[in-house]
Amino acid sequence: MLDIGAKDALDADFDVVVIGGGVNGTGIALDAAGRGLKVLLCEMNDLGGATSSASSKLIHGGLRYLEQYDFGLVRKALKERERLLRNAPHIMRPLRFRLPHRPHLRPAWMIRAGLFLYDNLARRLVSGPSHAIRFREKSPLKREMHCGYEYSDGWVDDARLVVLLARGAKALGAEIHPRTKCIAARREAGIWLVTLRNQQTGEVLTRSCRTLVNATGPWVESLFREVIDSSSPHSIRLVKGSHIVVPRLHDAPEAYILQNQDGRIVFVIPFEDVYSLVGTTDVDFDGDATDVAISRDEIDYLLSVINAHFMTQTTSNEIVWSYSGVRPLMDDDTTKAQMASRDYELELDVGQAGNEAPLLSVFGGKITTYRILSEAAVDHLRGTFPGMGERWTARNPLPGGAIESIDAFKAELEASYSWLPNKMLSRFARSYGTLCHQFLSGCQSLDDLGQHIGDTLYEAEVRYLVELEWARTSEDILWRRSKLGLHLTLKEIAVLEQILESILLQKTPYD
Fold this sequence. Notes:
Blueprint lengths: L13 E6 L3 H12 L4 E4 L15 E2 L11 H17 L4 E9 L7 H13 L10 E4 L12 E10 L1 H14 L3 E3 L2 E9 L2 E8 L5 E11 L5 H9 L7 E12 L7 E5 L5 E7 L3 E5 L3 E2 L11 H14 L11 E10 L13 E6 L9 E6 L5 H10 L26 H11 L5 H11 L4 H4 L11 E3 L2 E2 H10 L5 H8 L8 H17 L5
Parallel strand pairs: 1-2, 1-10, 2-7, 4-12, 10-18
Antiparallel strand pairs: 3-6, 4-6, 5-6, 8-9, 9-10, 11-14, 11-15, 11-16, 12-13, 13-14, 17-18, 19-20
Helix pairs in contact: 1-4, 1-7, 8-9, 11-13
EC number: 1.1.5.3
Family: Belongs to the FAD-dependent glycerol-3-phosphate dehydrogenase family.
Protein name: Glycerol-3-phosphate dehydrogenase
């Protein structure tokens, strides 16, 4: 623990306690641990179990934010897009987008101007420039759509990003406690006393820290009311975004960005090889953020947009999966949810006297800017921890990401594990990067991976996910650590749950 020079402060268990295990909370924990701070992170459910695993799976500048004149946010996001593509080539990749031109919605000059800005607001290191395109006879779009534009953004496995940030923080000494809810926090004698409850065992314990970070996303305001017994300095607007997954609408590798009559856009993204991911909606939300699901109106909305554009017509019976998340946006009094800012604010509170134990709160944000948000958050703590290290995350790869390229790494894996089927090899490379050696090393055949559960899932991977990635349920494994829930049968899921139960009962360290 760093000496912060507070002569009358009690010794604390931790320098920083972070409440919230989404992308911002785990990002802050990683950044702080890497600067020499002693960190504990708690999350009431699974890591990335809420908003951070319910995104459109994109790292992007936000082309549509240019219409709102939010040039600062777009510039920040575009710079981060390039950094993230470079630092996490296993779970992120460049993705080309096609935008069909519909002149009655947006004139060509507006789109060209927007794409020019998009290309030039930040230096491109990985992504290619935009250009106009013609849709030929084999286009999956309806025949009246003759031309459009193509530009670059990026794709991310959002839930795995959160887990890798947590793994990185743990490797640097942070304590990571999923399924642990903060039920009370109060200042006392210059420090915070934080009461935590294990959601599985019911065990309650108290830990002390010098700084408390509220990174609870949709719960940022309620944490003030229910845990800290204080009023929130900002209001947030909860906006629900929903997605559907349907059989692949086209065979090409590009994604599509579709304009709609209401001014919104909908993405159609290649997903898990044989599917298309369609989203998102923007609906104001005032319910329980832990219990959120797609509505019939949202399903009809997304289907109407894709059916207005694609030759292949899709019905609700063809939806194989849907998911919804609640985004905590800054409440800037805009009328439409789609117009609310996706930027963030950081609020540092040191009490009325100006010298109490700090409370840092995160309001808003988007997944693309998690790293600079985290960096800025830890920078805010320098007054409390003057001896902490300098910024470091911009050029450091995430766990598993120290590879030249995904193709080069796949070739290395094939050379080391020639017995691996190509489907497994590709999934391991894109999900784990070099981390997959931790459950593949020493194996000479598929039999060495233990019991086959279904599709590409074997017992050895499940054991790894339990022991090193905090997985505890089949849902953790099938929908956040992977998307194998799209590929396993109910019978295979039952086998997985039996194996999980056995592993959890053994409680033997994986390493």
